[in-house]
User: Fold these one by one.
Assistant:
Number 1:
Amino acid sequence: MEAEVVLASSPTDAGVSCWDLHTGAEHLRYKSCASSPHGLASVAGRFLASSQLRDRKSSSGSILYWSWNKPQVEVRSFPAEPIKALVSNSQGTYIAGGGVSGDIYFWEVATGKLLKKWHAHYRAVSCLVFNDDQSLLISGSEDGCVRVWSLFLIFDDARREEARHLFEYSFHEHSLRVTDVKTGYGGSNAIIVSASEDRTCKVWSLSRGKLLRNIVFPSIVDAISLDPGEHVFYAGSRDGKIYIAALNSPVTSNSNYGLHIIGSLSEHSKAVTCLASSADGFLLVSGSEDGMIRVWDTRTRNITRIFRHTKGTAQGPVNNVLVIRQPQNLNPRTSANSPVSPLRRHGLTLPPPLEKFANSPDENAHAKVFIGPQTTSNHLLDSSYISVQTMEAQIKELQQQGSSAAAEVDIERLKSEQLRSVQMIQQWKKMYENLHQFCVTELLDGTHTESANGPNL
Amino acid sequence: MLTERLLNFRVKIKRKIGRKLPPPKNSTNTEIKSKAIVLPEQSIVSEKAGLAVSRKGLTLKELLQQTNHHNAKVRKDALLGIKDVLVHHSVELKLHKLAVIEKLRERIGDDDKLVRETLYQLFKSVIFPGCGKDNQGPLVSLMMAYIFNAMTHLAIDVRLMAFKFFDLVVQFYPSAFSLYAEKILQNYEDILRKNQFLDDKSKLKSTLAGLIRCLSLLPCNESDNSADIPAHDILHAFEPEVAREPIGLIDIIKPLKDLLPILVGCFQDFMPLFHSSSQLDLQSYDCLQFILQSIDLIVRFLASGVCGSEPDSQILPPCQKPGMITYDQLISPMILKKLWDAFPLNLVRHLSGKGDDRIFMLNTVITKIFLQLSNWEHAPSALLEKFLEFIENSLATKVQSGKMFHEKHLLPLIPYIPKLTTQISGDWRSRILKAFTEVFKNSNPESSMKIACLSAVEEMLAPIKENIGLNFSVQQERSPLYLDANDLTLLDYQIAWIQYLPSLLILLDDKNPLCSKAVLRLQLRVAQAAPVNSPFSQEFDTMQYSFRGFFSQQIENAICYGPFIKLAADIQELAICCLYYFSFMDSLLLHSLVPCCLCKVLEPNMVARIIEVLQSAFRAGHIQVADYTSFHVTLLSRFQVYPEKIYPAVEYDGKSNWRTFKYVTSIVCSCLSQIGDDYLVFQMAEKIIVDHICGEIPMDNKCAFLRLLVTLDSKPTRLSDQSIVNISHVLPKYLIDVVSNVGEDDHESASVISVKRRRYYLLPSFYLFYGSKRLLNLVLNVMGSWISEVSSSLGSPHLTHPSSDRSTTSSKGTNLSLEERHKIQRAYDGLRALTNNEVVGHS
């Protein structure tokens, strides 16, 4: 099983704590983080980003980056307004943030450029999520609206001009603030589940754009987590219970809680504020108002582990939990003192801060240095530090030299192929011989026995 | 009876003088007379015994054969016989459905009128109702072949009858139309083109009625947005395969287009009537009405553009769907021009009011046709003005007369008002808006007009569907929001509408829940879509002052409940959701909410919901801390608990609302503890809570406050010295009350419950003792003094007369019976044991 880590943060300034999900070992604690709900994101496992709660007075927001091996904040960005929800796509190329005014900001991580900003909601954006193929962005807002944005449309100027609205879908059925949105698998045919303060969770179809199911809970649901098989989803509610709602079974009427709700996980805690599940779906991690992070086994419905987010007696509520694959360069606290190779330390440079304003589109695209996204963590950033000019020169070179070099490669390939075919022919021949031999003997034996049996008939 | 008949049969005796003598009286009559001898058992078809027969003894098979008889009367009788058989033996129909129809359909084109009529009645009353809905395909196709034949028959009557037959088929099997639409429409076109109807309007009327039925089956945009949630099927299951795709919509565009000028022609044929006669007779009025309705339906279909969408467009994501291409090109303006020329219809010679109403109805239909076209803004301004004037006038007369009649016919025009207001400008716009506003405000709150107006208002206030997202930060300044302060004319009206909503709610009371729901939904939409700091959000915030009356009002110390508590739960839910969106919630609004929460009628669940929403609003910074806490404290202090003893089996089916209060208490406790920093919250709330505990309130409420205090307090108590002293004065009495009142039920079975319940009451005070040693000491001292007092005075005879200078608590103590004293002793012992344990635990 792949090692997974649990990350947790809180609205009080208690940092981001980090544990191994399966062993329970605590890792480094990242300092000075007061995250907003849905405001903690791991950018493709490369580093950690979080939007910060700020005073009501301050006009600008704040987003902080931490690299895995240092507890201090490394990069600080200050967007134009406080950002509430923050999410990154799975490759870590983009970060999307939802502001208090209802705008959505869309940044490129590598350069920090603000690619787009659009007015998405009437009120603050409360949660953001990408669908599994990363082409749709789904946002929930305090005005009770869930909207689905296609990134293709947002970046296609021509089509945007003629479209009557920017969103793909706009779902208005929630009457109060949307607290969480999750998507299932299946690209643009997936289902999404949204939870709201109106005590309901609603299941929508992305392909048909309509409400599939409405589930009323006994209390406000603040967090949801989808089972990987999409048989059930878990809803963490304000009464401290985690309800299990069926997605793919016929209606069960014998439930105590209501239609579609088939059970609950509870440990008499305070309100559950956030949920996350491990990749295999067997472990469910819940963060609660009482500052505890509980790990549940969904098969037995028992608690397997409890982490405590805050130190000492102070009880800060937890408002974000994440479960991610263990980053390669994450050092457990025990080995924090062990010498780190200078190469590694050097390698971990984080991308530049996110920009506050969008540049005018006619700005020279070549002005920025591009840092190629790394596919493997072993292959560190410093090796791929190439300027655009160099890359273009290389491309040109390749294009010119391409003919002879490519021909050589081709010949090599053909030669080896021929060799292989010859071998194949030999093999076939041999097989044929064997088969022939076998048939002949069989035939001879057959006639033999037939002649022997003949007189009897 | 018998003798009577015999009398009738008596032979008349002819007497001719001189010819013959009358037969002698005693002679015997040897003649045998008989009309017919019926011997059923000797009939040739004696095997009919088990079969279904008609009244005349004929089987279905024979009757079917007779329908081909050359004599019309026999045919008719056969049909009647079939009816007879099928009515009495419904099994026959099920078994021989297709065979029967196959034979009978030949009579659709029968030359004899009576036969056709009889056949029609037979189909209408027996066969179609009996056939059911399954397997209609062969049935319809059997019928249609002959119906089409009859439609092209030479005799006009046969053709008309064929249309009636088709109408019948469509009535029972609506899908028949979409299958044969093209051909049918062509046939209608043919029959309407020949101008043979002016003499017989009833025939025209019946033909048109059939046409309208067909046309109303045409798909149109508005009908398919039904928001049904399939709650009961499995989410990821395959969808049931239903052939719902209407076939060949493209093919019927042409016949529809051809039909249009002919209908207009028919309409024109009636025009001379308006100039000549002084009275529009009912027949021609109905014909006109039907003609216009048909035109309306065709225009609606062609203008909606349903016909133009390619079948494969559903696969594309919605953004790539071809935008609404206007299909008005299909309708050439010249066709309808004659209609516009005739508008407004007026009788040359003016006459009675009844005729006026009819003309008015026709005019509204023409207006509706006009408004359905999407390119009418390109129409000549004179024409446009003609229509606008009519709309304004009719809206205005509606207000004056207030008749149900006008209301009913204006209704179809209302949905077009929003579109109208966005596309016209200047003077007319405000005039229309003004007239509309008048109608909206003055229409009867329980009428369907109100609901239509509400949906129009919703559309004009917040057309959320299309406006958001377009205002990119970089490229455009214009905001397509309708909640847009730039449009001043509209703004005034919009604000007027918003202001009107709360009073409408109160006006509606609980008489029309549907309308109340629509109003609240609209209100919620406004709240959600109002941009911060815009006139709308301000307007919405001021709305709360009138919104109060919806919940409750205090009129001269008496609480007057608003409609809120009487409405259904889903409407209440909507109303509560509106509360969240007030950017600042006034304390008076909270005051008006409290009586609702305390009201016995309100579901405990709804009380919890109110508190929950208020908590959300508080978190969002819409309520001040002081107001918020005082709301909760008032809730706890004013809640009236009815114990079982006092109202047995009256309230809540024998259950007291004690459980509700327990529930409310726990919610309030958790809400207040989540306000913020524990220490500050405690400091703020301490005084109020302690004051309430020391005040004169019932035991249950006292318990609630104690629980609240314990929830907010921490282990080494944060209570001030003064508070501890105050509490210590009241706590002993409270404890005694608990011990003496709770669990006094004599039933043994209830003992477990009562022990639990007693624990519920005692627990908070024990927690307090646990937190503060000093409080425990003080309380024990008071109790100890009582006991010593009582025991010392036991011997003295004048114990029962308490001296006047004693404190109330001790006087209470002296009044205790022996049993109660025992209880005090027990409680005291209990406390002792508890403290001892604690001491042991600590040491």
Number 2:
Amino acid sequence: MISIPCVSASVMRFNEKELVFLSRQPSEMAAELGMRGPKKGDVVKRRLVKLVVNFLFYFRTDEEEPIGALLLEQCKVERENSQSFSIAFLDEAERKYLFECDSEEQCGEWIDCIVKASYEFMRKNLIFYRTEIHRLTGKDPLEQYGISDETRFQISNGLQLTPGDTSSL
Amino acid sequence: MKLNERSVAHYATCDSPPDKTGFLFKKGERNTAYHRRWFVLKGNMLFYFEERDSREPIGVIVLEGCTVELCESAEEFAFAVKFDCAKARVYKMASDSQVAMESWVKALSRASFDYMRLVVKELERQLEEIQEAAGGSCVGAAVGGMQGRPKLSRRNQVARSRSGASSSSSSSSSLSSSSSAPPMLVPFSAQKSSQDEVQLVSGCSKENGVAWSKPPVALANGFVEGGSSCVAWEGCADPGSSTVIGYGAEGVRAPPVPPRRKGASLESPVCPGTVCFSKLHDWYGKEVEDLRMQWLQSQ
């Protein structure tokens, strides 16, 4: 856990050890790319970039522990030119992380993977499939697994509560 | 290690609906007293706030790869979030009722990205089967705005939002249309949006008294230019409806084994690549059952 005593903006703690451990798990995509941070004056540096679940980890090319991680929720991925793409987060859309690939094709693959790497994206897909299967068959496909009631799978309001659930808003 | 903390904190407080919220007691790391905190679960991230109306979280626990167990504690209704890595911290929490504890344990143990991915893949597979069985004839009717859409099983074209409501500049597209895309159909439909170029599909269809809303447009991570960050939830909510229909159980089918992911181990429920959805699901169910048994025995 990181806890830095600070006088101004508070730092949000997170479970760093576990996140570093996650960075070592099998990834969807991993490659050496050029990467430039969002701050003015940042330059492109060669990094090992690795996509694991909804995190994008980046490493110095010869190091085992990542320099950093980007949680890929609420972000926007854009093609910048034929071989580069950027990631920006909704709360600070002007700050872009730039990634330079070796080919147009590679760039396209990365964009594709990152777009699909968010939990929220998957949730929408799930809702779509659930709705569609129901439309076509008249049956709720989650029923047979007993998970129809789970909040995360709900069609409408994400806070669908079952009776007896006391931990609600 | 750095993390894009500001944006992560924004995810905690943005208007995407959380999967679960509530007060829990959390044991401190240095100060080992239990502190009451407001918890917000979104996806595989468990945020905690000092107060329910705090504007920013104190911290977040990334839940990917965790297991949730009951724990021995002087506190009643206690459980622990554990990780499989060396020197990992154990997060001890306590709820204020049996029901709440069970609910949290269930929610947290199924919060992983991998679990969601498995469920999605399973439904995708089921939908393909249905499509193929039906000869592809009924595809497209529910999918507003795209005429002549080929069968879902043809994956050459990932659906592109016709509205161009993707927020990128006109020369770039923020949705990929790579033909080598992994089989994940991007659902799209019209939806009410201030951007309005999106066509509107009429309301929600009702069947058996349940409103099944039209699927939302999926853009790059749910981003809509200038609008709310939650495309999925706007215009699709029908608060009065129940989303669960009771059907007679038909018996569980074991799904065919999906392709194994490179490097994944075979049998761990929390590891990517567990090959059988049905089995994985049983594991999760069993975990909850075990916890329930443990608690009953400890009474």
